Structures are given as structure tokens and as C-alpha cells.
Amino acid sequence: MAADPPVIRAAGTVLGRPGAAGREVALVHRPRYGDWSLPKGKAAAGEHPLRTAVRETAEETGVTPRLGPRLPSVEYETARGPKRVDYWAAEAAAADPFSAGDEVDRWEWVPLAEARDRLTYAHDAGVLAAYAELPEHTRPVIVLRHAPAGEKRHWHDRDLVRPLDDRGREEAAVLSRLLHSYAPRRAFSSATARCLESLLDYAFALDVPLVADQSFTLASTTPERAAARLRELLGSPGEEHDGLVVCTHGELVPVLARAACPPDRLPADPSLPKASFWVFHRAPGADGAVVSVERHDVRAGRGDRRGGT
């Protein structure tokens, strides 16, 4: 009996912006099919779904998106086998001139109220409906566990200065690109070398100040202090527009996750593997509600299915 064909993985966005009469969303026209759809495309080999969504949106519209909450995925059959498309809400972070191509020859900003009638496929309409239920703007609050730093028992200096190992440095570079998908503008870290190094590539690439904070440093804090500091940052001026990422230790990840998110939105065990992170999307305002929760791992796209929940 022949094996079932593998699922074709793809990702895309509902890219939105404020318009004169309310929100507008980007719809793309594909000349090969004569259809109107949401920006999306197939994943490259080993590519994380977050990067697929960003890359494909930029290629099809010229607009580099900043991702927001996860939207429903869509599954359907194609001539080459089953296909799954993961979607995110998004807003524009930057824009380049659009170049028409064989896959997309034009695209338009369409009022949200009219977009449903323009879309060719019913499954796109379901994604659009979920997008319409979200606040117009959300901000990401990211809790990150540092990348691998070797075995503690093999390190004979102060634990404070234990650095990332070769694998950890490789995964920190991947983390930088994944975090760039959300582009938080405030970055805090445990004062340990391994946590700071896990965010260094990201902070340098986006010119974001990286703050070492002993409240998130295992040997210098308590769970209560760490949680209180995160809640303080969530309520500080400017945070609701800039987003936030905090890198810390495995022991403190559940503490910070519970401080950032209501317990009914988290699994019973909110711990993370190394080089993984939670993303809590919050509505505007210092006390904005958590509207979406995701978990991501650098290994997603490379045979690991922990791409997001």
C-alpha cells in the first residue's frame, strides 16, 4: 500500500492597516488561478512557519509584516496532496516597491467589511472572520528560555559567566530571526552570560537596548520578585506600543508565564525547552487582556512539530 503523501506546509498573514472607514486588509491576485486570496506561500526546506509567513507576505506585497496573534489554520487537498496553511494577523513594519510576478500580479488594500466578498475561497473567509474579532492593534509579550549552554557540571567557573555552547550560538541566531517576526522594542534579560547572549543577536540587529535585570537572574531573585518585575514592566509607559521580550532560566519561565497570562489560557505545565518561547498577545492598555497565546521552538520546521500552540 502506498504511503500517504506528506502534508505540504505553508504560511501567510491577514495583513491589516487603519483605513479612513475602518480597518483594511491586503488581498493578492494570482494570475495563474484568477483568484483573490490572502498573502501566503509554501515553506522552504527547514523553514520555521513564522519566517514563512513573514517572507511570503513580503514577497507577494512588498510589505514586511510584524506578526500579531495566531489565526486558524486551513487544510485542503491539492493536486500534489494535502496542504496546511498557518496564518497570523499582521501589520506593516516596512514597505518596499511592489514588483508584479508570475505568482502575484497585483494586490490591493480592501476595507475589511468588503474583503469577504472579494475572496475566492470560503476557507479564507473563515480566517478573515477570526481576524475581524481581534483588536485592531495588539502587542507581544515574549518569555524566552535561553539557548543551550553546555552542561553545568562541566563548567568550573562562576555560573554567571557560563556562555552558550556551539549549538546555543547557532540557535540564538535562529531566535533572532524568529523574534524579528514580532519585533518587540524592549528587551530584558537575566544578567547571566547565557541569557544575554541568547538575545544579543536580536538586540543588535534591531538596535534595541538590552537590559540585564537581576529580577530575572536565578541566583539573585525569587519567584515573587521576578513576577512582580514583569508585571511592573507590563504596566510601564510605552510598553503597550513597543512589545516586550524577557530572556530567563527554565526555573523562572513558568513563573513569568503565569504573571503574564491568566491561568485558564496556559497548560498545567507552562515550562519550555531551551531556545523556546511563549508569546502572549495583549490588547491595548496597561491592563490589556491576553487575546492569544503561542509557543514556539527554534526546531519547528526541521522535523519538530512544536511550531506553535
UniProtKB/TrEMBL annotation:
Keywords: Hydrolase. The keyword Protease does not apply. It holds the Pfam family NUDIX. This is NUDIX hydrolase. One of its GO terms (molecular function) is hydrolase activity. Residues 6-133 form the Nudix hydrolase domain. PANTHER family: BIS(5'-NUCLEOSYL)-TETRAPHOSPHATASE [ASYMMETRICAL] (PTHR21340:SF0), DIADENOSINE 5,5-P1,P4-TETRAPHOSPHATE PYROPHOSPHOHYDROLASE MUTT (PTHR21340).
